[in-house]
Amino acid sequence: MAQPDITLYTSGTPNGQKASITLEELGLQYKVKNIEISKNVQKEDWYLRINPNGRIPAIVDHTVDLHGKPRQKRVFEGGAILLYLTQKYDASHKISYPYDTDEYWEVMEWLMWMQSGIGPMQGQANHFYRYAPEKIEYGINRYQTETKRLYQVLETRLEEQASAIAQGPWIVGDKMTIADLACFSWVNWAEWAGVDVNDFARVKEWLERINERPAVQRGLDVPEPFEMKKKMQTKEGEEEFQKHHSEWVMKQQNADQEKHK
Question: CB of 115 within 8 A of CB of 231?
Answer without folding.
Answer: no
